[in-house]
């Protein structure tokens, strides 16, 4: 299991041609913790975002991601759900439990690449708290995203 921040920026290569088709820029997932795919920033003068469904990934490596040829789709193919940083991004939003306890801000997600599931969430309480206490890790639970907060369906 790894955090998405360790994967962000990795180059994406087609399996048969070895062509570098871009780099990973975001992750797409549902509120129940299912990874749907990734947003890839394409190379070139007119860089654009493409969608890489999870089933298009051949392998996750520490130095790159190998995908099936022609696995990248137009960004209009993005499924309904959430991401960390793009237009439906939830990184930086406050995380609050169902009983009203504020846990901190959502910073990252832990995911199992081959299983296609979110294993947990990384929560921060700010720079100094992270230095003294460390970041919090919360197991993956269903959540609801509002305009100003993420409500996790658990009680602390």
UniProtKB/TrEMBL annotation:
<feature type="domain" description="PRC-barrel">
    <location>
        <begin position="5"/>
        <end position="71"/>
    </location>
</feature>
<dbReference type="Pfam" id="PF05239">
    <property type="entry name" value="PRC"/>
</dbReference>
<protein>
    <submittedName>
        <fullName>Photosystem reaction center subunit H</fullName>
    </submittedName>
</protein>
<dbReference type="InterPro" id="IPR027275">
    <property type="entry name" value="PRC-brl_dom"/>
</dbReference>
<feature type="domain" description="PRC-barrel">
    <location>
        <begin position="90"/>
        <end position="152"/>
    </location>
</feature>
<dbReference type="InterPro" id="IPR011033">
    <property type="entry name" value="PRC_barrel-like_sf"/>
</dbReference>
């Amino acid at each position: 299991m790894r955090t998405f921040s360790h994967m962000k920026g990795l180059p994406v290569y087609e399996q048969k041609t070895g062509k570098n088709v871009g780099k990973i820029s975001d992750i797409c997932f549902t509120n129940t913790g299912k990874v749907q795919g990734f947003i890839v920033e394409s190379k070139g003068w007119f860089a654009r975002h493409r969608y890489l469904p999870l089933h298009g990934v051949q392998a996750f490596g520490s130095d790159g991601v190998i995908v099936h040829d022609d696995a990248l789709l137009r960004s209009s193919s993005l499924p309904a759900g959430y991401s960390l940083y793009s237009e439906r991004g939830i990184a930086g939003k406050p995380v609050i439990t169902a009983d009203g306890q504020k846990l901190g801000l959502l910073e990252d997600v832990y995911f199992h690449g081959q299983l296609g599931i979110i294993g947990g969430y990384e929560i921060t309480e700010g720079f100094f708290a992270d230095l003294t206490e460390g970041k919090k890790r919360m197991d993956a639970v269903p959540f609801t995203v509002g305009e100003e907060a993420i409500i996790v369906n658990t009680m602390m």
